[in-house]
Amino acid sequence: MWQHYLMDDHLDKAPLQTADGQKSTSRLNDISPKSTERFVENSELTVHEAVKFMWTSNLPVAEDWFQRNLEQDPRCAIHYAEAGFLKAVILGDNQSKEAVIERLDNAEMIAEKFVKKWETEGNKVLETKGTMLSPNEAMKIIKAAQNLRLALVVKAEATLFKSGNQILKNKLSLGSMNFRRAWKIYQKANKIAEAQKWVEKQYFSPEEIKGLQTQIEGDINNFIQFGEGVICLGLSMAPKTMSKLANIIIGLDGDQSRGLKILYDCINSKKGVRVPLALMFVLFWLLIYIPEFIPGKHERYREAHDLIRFALHYLPQSPYFYWLESYMNQRQGNLERALKLLNRVIAYSGRTGIDENPGRLSFERGWVLFLCQDWESARQCFEISIEKASDTPFTHLLLGVSYCMLNELQLAEDTLESIASYNKESSSVEEKWIHKRASSYLGRRWFQLFPFEISYVTDYLQGLKYDWLESSYDYLTSIDIEDSEEKDEIVISMLLQGAILRHLGRLREAVLILEAGIKLEQDVKKEIWVVPHIYYELGIVYVKSRDWTTSSAYIRKAKSFKRSYEFKASLSFKLNATLELILQEENKEFKK
User: Fold this and answer.
1) Is the separation of the CB atoms in 283 and 304 below 8 Å?
2) Residue 70 falls within a domain, yes or no?
3) Mean pLDDT score of the chain, rounded to an integer?
4) Which of 70-84, 250-264, 271-285, 490-504 is the least confident region?
5) What is the CB-side half-sphere exposure of residue 542 using CA atoms within 13 A?
6) ∠ CA 14-15-16 to the nearest 5 degrees?
7) CA torsion sign, 167 to 178 to 265 to 27?
8) Rounded CA gap, 103 and 82, in Å?
9) Each residue of 408-417: pLDDT tens digit?
10) Domain extent for 174
11) Are residues 40 and 62 in contact, defined by beta-carbon separation less than 8 angstroms?
């Protein structure tokens, strides 16, 4: 469904193709970094200029401006929370994340104060039918209705963001409740808007109505587009229990196509206050939420590229879109470009006083260096990240493996033991496999396989470039592992070699090494996950050669594998997607 939308409709209406190409007349375009603080203290600064400033030139200074004005304008309260979110994206520490929640709570309270201030006069717009008003009375009611709607949409957005955080923390009941609350507040604002339009038509000419379309009116519409788009798209990604409940209580289904269309309407306003967040949300969906193995990857990357170019046109040198561009490049195997963009964002963080070595970005940089097999530089980044922000099992796992590759084996053992002893009961599903990997690595001999295993199970292998694949294959074949008694590790090495050969297009060699691995299936005692993955790889090799019968047989063999193993959920998704692809291709050939 969504691929059809992206290819046949969505891309035709991509914002880059409809951009007017005009330069922004904002005073921000002419401001040098040295004059930043003086300018932002200027009382003539608008909310729109401060938003652009926040996303481009200097986050801390814009953040301070929003904080000083949040009691005067509910938009400043929600943008102050937005500034906290952007800072958390860079830093990644718990303190900055907690600050975002505190600011959202505060924005919700401030918005509620404005709702109470304007609801008596603003709600009069709902009672005007059948009454006669003077033009002055009508104008007063319209302005009150606008202010009420603005307060309502800010309150709705704060509630919606809180809901998202609660759902991510697996507090589904509370998150679902706030999700529904946010939707109802948006609908209340829409109801008032309909009544406001009726009053405008009754008492004012088309020219006068046009004069009423203030910047606030545009902001309200932008907030609503963003909120409704996030809700529709978000519901399509939510747990089934939550989406069913939303359908029962508010009659709303998750709808990817509808959500994307609304978000693109928001984006195509070009300079609205919610354009940056709408862009970021769609990019998160394209690049992070949808797994790499889902068909349509090249179309998604093309779409993401267009969105990033659009973002950097209207928000020049935005570090947040450079960061997303870096992420896209690392997924595509453009590691040098990814590293260059990350260094640019880290330099921005230091230049603006956020942090010279921000924890979250240090992890991102370490991961790219890990993929580049620069173990010493990766180690330094992971150590900074653990100290400042990303003290997570995955960061420790990568650090432990980096120590292994640097032959600092005691440090590696200590690090991996610390992960293996984590409290598994409180761990997420994602973290549990990391605990198992750490425990597994402690009992294994051939640590040289570990980095390639991690690249494989995180689905990064398929995006890496020819030179990387070729040098990695040469490295793996140079490890003298065939004559060892560690059959599990021999089969893992065969899986990795076969997968790399497949990506290199050397399909016959891939079949030989993978089939050799299958012959050792009964000898695999601990690393059970490797067996169904070998069947999957063989199935994909035969998909590449368009042998649908053989590929289907191997995929079904993997699906019917009875023993419990790691990474089963993600592999099952891939197996089902591959069977669907095989069926589609067989039908195409049958119809010829």
Assistant:
1) yes
2) yes
3) 87
4) 250-264
5) 21
6) 95
7) negative
8) 9
9) 999 999 999 9
10) 2-6+46-316
11) yes
